[in-house]
Amino acid sequence: MKYTYKALLTYPIIFLFIFFSKSSFAQYPGMTAFRAQQNQQFISQQMQMTMQMLNMRGAVVNAPEEFDFQVTMLDSTKKEITSAIYTDTIAKAHFIVWIDKKYKKSDTNRYKKIYSSQTRSLVCVLIPTDGFHKGPAKYLPGKITDSCWMFKTITGRINAYSTVPNNLRPLDPSTIVGIQLDNGPILPFNELNLRGMVALDPKALELTSEKKYIRAIKKYNNHNEKN
Q1: Closest to 83 measured CA to CA, from 61, 106, 56
Q2: Of the candidates 69, 136, 143, 179, which lies 20 to 30 Å from 199 by C-alpha distance?
Q3: Domain count, the chain
Q4: Which of 184, 177, 70 is closest to 120 using CA atoms?
């Protein structure tokens, strides 16, 4: 009876100690950034392990994070894939990695590269429909080319397309590969093509001359909003 009474007192005390320790730790300045850094390190370690399993020579990661994709293959099979977007520097093409869970983790067949040329469609799930997110789901379709998927990251008179879904994080200009004026063709992202699009907007043209290309696009779009 004595031991039972002690146990009844001990467990609540342990629980309260853990609870308040976690609460205090969470409120400690910088803890949010610290945890985000830990998560990023974990994801980076996972990517390195995946690259080792695939023996991916000449492969680099386009962005230090993973995305959720809904993929339809050329044979119409559908897959839900969580992966970073990688660049095959030898084939000069982008790919994602599908984990085939019917194989053991130690089996190299578990990890399969999927290139854009093997897909009929690919959609990035920015905000899923689950109990953890409020509001509607948000999806970002990728335009398929023979070497990559392009995601619209700037919308306006001039649309800009990136090789990674930039919409929920700061825009990385180095990932922009295509620009489009209105409903015209998507052209390679370079100064010459951008100058042709903003030629009638002096301020946007000046920003282009200063190599401030993203600001030039946004300035042009603000000055020339679609009616």
Answers
A1: 61
A2: 143
A3: 2
A4: 70
The domain containing residue 209 runs over which residues? 148-227
Tell which of 91, 116, 144 closes a domain: 144
Shortest CA distance to 111 belongs to which of 52, 63, 30, 39?
52
> Residue 201 is encoded by which pair of tokens?
């907007």
- What's residue 57's pLDDT? 60
- R_g over Cα of the chain: 24
**Confidence bin at 23 (pLDDT 50/70/90):** very low
pLDDT of the residue at 128: 77
Residue 170 and residue 203 in one domain? yes
Does the model's pTM come out above 0.85? no
Residue 60 covered by a domain: yes
Q: 76-124 pLDDT, tens per residue?
A: 999 999 999 999 999 999 999 999 999 998 888 899 999 999 999 999 9
pLDDT 10s digits, 117-173:
999 999 999 887 666 666 677 899 999 999 999 999 999 999 999 999 876 567 888
